[in-house]
UniProtKB/TrEMBL annotation, chain A:
This is ABC transporter family protein. The lineage of its organism: Bacteria, Pseudomonadati, Pseudomonadota, Gammaproteobacteria, Oceanospirillales. SMART domains: AAA. GO terms for molecular function: ATP binding; ATP hydrolysis activity. It comes from Onishia taeanensis. InterPro entries: AAA+_ATPase, ABC_transporter-like_ATP-bd, ABC_transporter-like_CS, P-loop_NTPase.
UniProtKB/TrEMBL annotation, chain B:
InterPro entries: UPF0014_fam. The chain crosses the membrane at residues 6-24, 36-57, 63-81, 93-117, 129-148, 191-213, 225-246. It is a multi-pass membrane protein. This is Putative ABC transport system permease protein. Keywords: Membrane, Transmembrane, Transmembrane helix. Belongs to the UPF0014 family. One of its GO terms (cellular component) is plasma membrane. Its main location: membrane. It comes from Onishia taeanensis. It is found in: Membrane.
Amino acid sequence: MPAPPDTQAATSLSLEAVAVGALEDVSLKLAPGEITCLSGPSGSGKSRLLRAIADLEPHEGDIRLGDQAQATLPGHAWRRAVMLVPAESQWWAEDVGAHFDRDCQAGLEALGLSPETLGWQVARLSSGEKQRLALLRALSRRPRALLLDEPTANLDHATTLSCEAWLGEQARQFGMPMLWVAHDPEQIKRVAQHHVRITGSRLETTP
Amino acid sequence: MNVIALEWWQLSLAALMVVALATCTTLARLEIGRPLLIAAARTAVQLTLIGLVLEALFASARFQWVAMMAVAMLLIAGREVMTRQRRRLRGGWAFGISTLAMFLSSFSVTVLTLTVIVGPEPWYAPQYAIPLLGMLLGNTMTGVSLAMDRLTTNVWQQRSVIENRLMLGQPWQEAIGDVRREAMRSGMIPTINAMAAAGVVSLPGMMTGQILAGSAPALAVKYQILVMFIITAGTGFGTLAAVAATSRRLFDERERLRLDRLSTPKG
């Protein structure tokens, strides 16, 4: 059963003159419920920018969730609100279910996973299953903004499409701003309301 | 009962056995002969020197000499802990944390034991203070160095897991929890094993020494139990402090994992 949309919590995520690694002066406003795709050559600092937004890497500039500045929240509280799903997910317990603190049967179904998945051993999972479960694990914690690092890299075309649809619906339903690292122009066309690209040390908006 | 005096030529017979072992391993190309002989030589030289120092110390029995000796032992132990770690905290933190942890635990347990439990007159009498502190420091050093080495090595190996847990919004204590428990365990295992095996599998060295030197077994046993307990307390609290301080230092004020604070292993 889908939870009712919680528009009260909907907030934008804004970056003001952020600098990390080779990237300089990155300013960006991510509106609630909208997906912004981020692309750029490999090694250009996409993942590092996401890590800086999640405050896992020292950086300069001002990052805010709504009115709340990053530095005013403790590190873990910020990351609970602005959640990063890395390209390669990590699992620390034996069972899949031990990584989830909420029931998420509806999500399993939407992502094409069997309802028994939560009872499986992590060692049994394929890379595609891990990737989808990592998305579900993050979203089950109800973040207020989501940063995705190539969330469909290990998925076949049909699963990619259902995954994109589910993520788009989650963004709208919870009013979450999403920053999505993607390479495939077709995917960017399908999911993104906005598209930004890293060129050299700058971030450029692509129409 | 008198102690049978041990002559130097008798010790050299024992040394011959070590030399024989070194020769055999060298012939078998096991490459342990050289470090074995160096360690054996160090034992002989260090213990001979400490014998001289202790004789002088017992003769004077002045507090400042006992204190100086204790501090020297502590600093050497701190250096040993540092060199036994493959990846250590940079900038003197590895030495600082381990020395402080050993100071807090070994010194307070020793002082407590001397003043409250054993009660020699004066309380710092070197015949009691130095051997007790030595046994405590030796064991605490092992616990602290095993735990710190395990902690830094495992954090390095499991860095992606720890960071993924941080990304999901876990506080740093929770993200590093498994690694911390594992480090504490490896620091305490030798002590727990020694207590569990004492008297059944092994006769502890101190008790054996006391019996060889003519003490009644019942008294030797009491001292051994006392020493086992204070060693456990000293090792445990020292390891606890070292694990807590080291894991805190691996994260910054934003709860980021800071592996740049660890050195890279040489070779």
